[in-house]
Every structure is written in C-alpha cells, then in structure tokens.
Amino acid sequence: MYPLLDYAKNCSKNINRLMENQSPKFLKILAQLISYIAHPLFIPTYFFLYLMQVVPFEFASITDWQLKMKLFSVFWLTAFFPAFAVFLLWRLKFSDSIFLKTQKDRIIPYVIVMFFYWWMYYLSRNFADQPLALKYFYFGIFIASAIGLTANHFIKVSLHTMGVSGLLTAVLLVSFSYPINNLPWVIVAVAIAALVWSARMIVSDHTNKELVVGFAIGLSTQLAAFFWVN
Prior knowledge:
By secondary structure, the protein is mostly helical. The protein has helices at residues 2-20, 24-37, 43-54, 64-91, 103-126, 132-151, 159-177, 183-203, 208-229.
C-alpha cells in the first residue's frame, strides 16, 4: 500500500512541475475539468464500469440488457438523485451554493448520499447476482460518508480526495478478491488519484490537511469494509 501512496505523491509532484510551465488560465480550466469528471458522485458509476471490464464473469447470469440497466440504476441512485437533491436544496435556499463551498452546506447532502449508499449496499448484500467487490465498495463509501459527516463539524474534508482514494483502494482490493491481472488498472487508478489531488490543489480552497484527511477516510473505510464483508 505504501509504495502506491509514494507513487501517487511522486506523480502529483511531477504533474505540478509540468503544470507550472503552462499558463495559469489553462491550468485552472484543466484542473476544473478534471474536478468535474472525477466528481465524487460519479465514483460508484466508474467503479461499476471497471468491474464490467475486469470481472465480466460476475455478471454472466444476467443478459446484456439487464447489465446495462444495472449500470443505469447505479448512476441514477448514486449520482443523479443526490445531485438533483443538492440542486433543490440550493433553489429552496437551504444552501448558499450548489458547489457546497461551506461546511454548513454539506450537512444535508452528506445525509442524502448516506441514505443512497446504504440502500445500494443493502441491495448488493441481499441479491445473489451482485459481485463481492460491490458489497464492500458500497459499504465502504457508506462508512466514508458517515465519517465525513462527523468530521464536517471540525474540518471541511475534501470530497474529491475521499472519492478517488476510495476508488483506488477498491480497485487495489479487487486484486485480492479475484485471480486477475489487475496491475494496469491499479496504475491507472493511482494516476487518476494524483491528477485529482493536483487539480484540487489548484482550483479548490482546501488546505493540504483537508486533502490528506479526505484521502485517509476514503482509503481506511474501504479497507475496513473489505475485511468486514469478507
């Protein structure tokens, strides 16, 4: 685990050195684009797409159409509905910004995603056609959101680093769950984590402590969920 973290840090440093030679405007646009693409709400959908590629045998009992509907339901329940709820909170003046810039703005969205993540874990646990990796992944992001809600009273944890570290850890743990060559995907996940970390350093108002705490929560909760479920 530690060599991977060191590799991620080195990647982040190299990316930052490369970006220093670019114009600030281009740098901020690129960082903002990365932040949008790697938004925490999209992480469950990305992980499901990843499982479709690396462990297709886990979905052998369902048709292609059913698999597509499962993918759609993951996006619908973990991205669209939470995002729509945040939008409604903003329009109803319960939050000052749709981007959840303050700790106060994040309280209700934390509770909302906790509900959806728990529901996804409940479904994965009670249906036999769900991959094992999904069970610990959903449980992990539920725990992460619960810890994030608690920590939110003291510090504005980076949701982006929490999300990508959870994704990185979940991808790494797949290597211990299935007899597959997962190294290329682990390298991709490390690179994504480094990119997102660098992007948040550029365009967010997070401190280094907030980025580190977010990364630690995402990593530790996936590990805890993996050992609990297994």
